[in-house]
Amino acid sequence: MGRASPCETVDDREDWMTRGDHVVLVLDDDPSILSGLERLLTAHGYSVRLHSEPDDFFHVGMPEVPACLLLDNQLGDGMTGVQVHAELQRRGWHIPTVFVTAHWNVQTVVNAMRDGADGFLTKPCNPTDLLDAVAQALQRAFTLQRAELQAATARIRAASLTLREREIVRLVVAGLLNKEIADQLDIALITVKVHRGRAMQKLGAGNAAELAHIASLAGITG
Q1: β-strand 97-101 against 119-122: which pairing, if any?
Q2: What is the mean pLDDT of residues 142-160?
Q3: Which of 12, 17, 23, 54 has its CA 20 to 30 Å from the CA of residue 142?
């Protein structure tokens, strides 16, 4: 049975939508907004998690499935939405975020977009615009999660390489031919071919292009 490559992809949106492998997070201190968004999103097949306070949002933690966040900027006496978004970045939580708020100014929008926000909608927002923003943000979340899983798989496989195999992979990725690698390392050409073949097998690479991609994911460069 062959091993799956970290380069493999799946049918994106249909796959996670039909399995329910996603969640739309909503952080807003207005109960009527929370209930309205919950009705709208669940009616269109989305799984939803509601929060009225930043502390509760962070306490529950990062979802394991692809997720996006609909975030109000004015959150009562606690953190602002911009501060919540900055805390996400500090914690390394990669959640595509769409601000949905009536309280904003130009500088708020500029700062939020500069820090990686995926969109900014003004309350009351058009339901179609909101649903479009959610679909795009979740698609990016799925892409991010898939990339992280591919990188983790590549790192695990790379950990099985010997020092010589890792060295040869670096030189292959740098564009050297087998003969050039043999000359540079002062080893036999057949030795290079053996180590290269073993490295490709361990990494699950079928050709040089796949080897370069997986090596990049695993951090084997230079």
Answers
A1: parallel
A2: 90
A3: 54
